[in-house]
Design goal:
27 strands, 42% helix, 743 residues, Rossmann fold, 6-stranded antiparallel sheet, 25 helices, Isoleucyl-tRNA Synthetase, Domain 1, alpha+beta, Methionyl-trna Synthetase, domain 2
């Protein structure tokens, strides 16, 4: 069985983690790690603080303290914030420790002896007043490419151009605010150009699996041609090479490893440190076990990063590993784009940011943490930049976590406590074979796993009509098909879609409860009611498993209702594989008669005043609502960006029926691609239900669910109205597959 090594880009220990960081490299990795553990896989998730380089010394200069004080402050603060956010690192290290320094120097020495480093004398800016060579970030000037003022010494943030430091026009030292001179110095360069063909082959070999943003950025770099890259810098803070074997000690004086080099090695040294700590604790791991995570070809390294780190992980790291020899290379690099805040880029200098520690201090509840995790997970910038808004946070908490998931759990467990003694109902004789039938159904679903949900529905009459009611069949099908979708999406790093499918399971659960009407059958058909609530309690437990990668604190609360806790939360388990809890969630295995604790409210709603206080901290007007996801201009016109936020897809009506006690509403089951949705439409005065079955219509697929007549509607259909107010569904001119995008 292959094992999975998961890493997140090491955050600089020069500032606090904010929500943009979380959405980029940390929350997606944590959700993925938790899911893989739940699926019974051998997983190790490591990270740590990046504590060297100019970013640290600049922060130290600004605060007037030594660099060590800076890294200690932010390492501690970020580690605490990560822990409260529910990050399930197996180990969180730091690059300032002795092991990392020693291993980084050894890596340098090995590459030098392998002939992949070269010594070069070069010209570099020197500050005569400060008596120091100037690293790239210590000098600013005019970009030699686009003419932008305030460009850094190696890169222009405006046009993205990279250049040699001495090409910068009108340079000024940020240390002394004087014009620097140019002096000669010696540095060691990595012969990156020798790996051009190897990296090209490596990148293209992953073209079928990697994200397009990763592939395109790598191809762009390769098209320009890889050149030798400096691996040392003149700096007094970092991994010193003065005593490295094979270098002239005088030339190496004052030289440290360039932070881009030693940071990517932090994953390896963190794994080594984890193994050493595990061995010391007597947890069945030997210090040499780090090798199976970095030298065994059956290990898959998944590197979660933001798009600004793509080149270092997809080009530099594989080349370094090849130069060193014997190390595995990243199997996948699911880099995310950037998360914006209320429509603007995160900016600490403009105070346009939400630090994780501030969020935790302000809300100070595990509900809020889970609500934040869920909100970010539903809008991850997986393929393009995304946006976090406080109104969206409020809506996701109130309309989804509270109204769908929390409402279902509370309805079911409260009903069981009120009517069935607070225990998982014991199946009556007429339904005594139900649990074995659910196992048969799981095997049936697995046998036909390549069939669509619509195709599987056709087997009901021939295979299960004599064993299961249609409602029971539908809920079992929803969970078995949903579990496969969720697993497939996680394994292809479509985490946002996996989260949406997980909430769809909760929607299906609510539908089952409503359709079964246990509040009626408790009197009219007690046996059926006990069967219904047996199924519903199983579903509650199953939902706690499916949701645990996303909202771990809430899932733990649900599991405590069942007196169950532990590894099913997907927490760190020392890299040891466990049983497949995802399979258990589908098989409905909670024993009959199991005691259930008195339920408590999982998600309380956030009122407007709480949200407006947070918006006010950003200094923006909190009056306009963001629930519609756009703000109209005075002329009533919207931008193309506003329109593009609507997701229009073709849907096919599978079932349609009138809604009792309503003159206007028709309830439909609509297939939209791989999804089956319940949609309510006020067209009963214009169409008969049977006229709609088989009809292709246009659906607004990303509209928040609404409740009408006690039923949830998971979308909206587009209609046209004539002068007589007759409604007509908008339909495709030609036959087109459901799920097709309407533009």
């Amino acid at each position: 069985m292959s094992r999975t090594l998961i890493t997140s880009a090491l955050p600089y220990a020069n500032g606090y983690i904010h929500l943009g960081h979380l959405a980029g490299a940390y929350l997606p990795a944590d959700i993925y790690a938790r899911y893989m553990r739940l699926a019974g896989k051998e997983v190790l998730y490591v990270c740590g603080s990046d504590e060297h380089g100019v970013a640290i010394t600049i922060s130290a200069d600004k605060e007037g303290v030594p660099p060590k004080q800076i890294i200690d402050k932010y390492h501690k603060a970020n580690l605490e914030a990560f822990a409260k956010f529910g990050m399930s690192f197996d180990f969180y290290s730091r690059t300032s420790n002795k092991l990392h320094h020693e291993d980084s120097v050894f890596f340098f020495e090995k590459m030098l002896s392998n002939g992949f480093l070269t010594e070069k004398e070069e010209e570099q800016f020197y500050d005569e007043k400060a008596k120091m060579f100037l690293p790239d970030r210590y000098v600013e000037g005019t970009c030699p490419v686009c003419g932008e003022e305030g460009a850094r010494g190696d890169q222009c943030d405006k046009c993205g151009a990279y250049y040699e430091q001495t090409e910068l026009k009108n340079p000024i030292s940020v240390v002394s605010n004087t014009v620097p001179t140019i002096k000669k110095t010696t540095h060691w360069y990595f012969k990156l150009g020798q790996f051009q063909e190897f990296i090209e082959t490596y990148i293209e070999s992953n073209a079928g699996e990697w994200k397009e943003n990763v592939l395109q950025q790598c191809r762009s770099w390769l098209k320009m041609g890889l050149a030798d890259r400096a691996i040392t810098r003149d700096l007094d803070w970092g991994v010193s090479i003065e005593n490295a074997k094979g270098v002239d000690k005088e030339k190496a004086k004052g030289k440290v490893l360039y932070v881009w080099f030693d940071a990517v090695l932090g994953y390896i040294t963190a794994t080594k440190e984890w193994a050493m700590v595990q061995e010391k604790k007597g947890l069945g791991v030997k210090a040499d076990d780090w090798k199976k995570w970095w030298k065994d070809e059956s290990t898959q390294h998944i590197a979660f990063i933001g798009k600004d780190n793509i080149v270092f992980h997809a080009i530099m790291l594989p080349a370094l590993e090849m130069a060193f020899g014997g190390l595995i290379m990243p199997h996948n690099i699911p880099a995310n784009e950037f998360l914006n805040l209320e429509g603007q880029k995160f900016s600490k200098s403009r105070n346009w940011s939400i630090d994780l520690r501030d969020f935790i201090d302000d809300f100070n509840t595990t509900q809020a943490v889970d609500a934040l995790r869920y909100t970010l997970a539903t809008s991850l910038p997986e393929n393009k930049d995304a946006d976090f808004t406080w109104k969206d946070f409020q809506a996701k908490n109130n309309n989804e976590l509270a109204a769908i998931l929390g409402n279902y759990v509370n309805r079911v467990l409260t009903f069981v406590h009120k009517n069935m003694g607070g225990r998982v109902p014991i199946l009556p004789d007429s339904y005594s074979k139900l649990q074995s039938i659910t196992k048969d159904f799981a095997l049936f679903s697995l046998m036909y796993k390549d069939r669509t949900e619509e195709e599987l529905h056709t087997y009901y009459t021939s295979e299960f009509e004599s064993k299961l009611s249609l409602n029971d069949f539908n809920i079992l099908l929803a969970f078995s098909v949903g579990a496969r979708k969720i697993s497939r999406m996680y394994r292809h790093f479509r985490i946002k879609e996996a989260v949406a499918e997980t909430m769809n399971l909760a929607r299906a659960a609510n539908k089952y409860f409503n359709d079964e009407e246990p509040w009626k059958t408790i009197k009219s058909d007690p046996d059926k009611c006990h069967k219904t609530m047996f199924m519903c309690t199983q579903i509650v437990y199953s939902l706690s498993i499916f949701f645990s990668p996303i909202i771990p604190y809430t899932s733990a609360k649900i599991q405590k209702f069942f007196n169950i806790s532990g590894l099913i939360l997907g927490m760190s388990n020392g890299g040891v594989p466990t049983k497949n809890f995802i399979r258990e969630a589908v098989n409905f295995l909670v024993p009959e008669g199991s005691e259930i604790a008195e339920p408590t409210i999982l998600f309380s709603p956030y009122e407007d005043d709480v949200i407006q206080q947070q918006i006010a901290k950003l200094g923006i007007n909190a009056t306009p609502t963001h629930n519609a996801q756009h703000i109209e201009s005075n002329d009533g016109l919207i931008s193309i960006d506003d329109f593009s936020k609507m997701k229009l897809q073709v849907g096919k009506v599978l079932e349609a029926e009138a809604v009792p006690k309503s003159k206007k509403l028709i309830k439909m089951q609509v297939k939209v691609g791989d999804e089956r949705r319940q949609v309510l439409a006020g067209v009963a005065e214009h169409y008969k239900p049977e006229e709609l079955i088989g009809k292709s219509i246009v659906v607004v697929a990303n509209l928040r669910p609404a409740t009408l007549m006690g039923l949830e509607s998971q979308g909206m259909m587009l209609c046209a109205s004539d002068s007589a107010h007759n409604l007509f569904f908008l339909t495709p001119e030609k036959d087109i597959a459901d799920g097709s995008v309407v533009k």
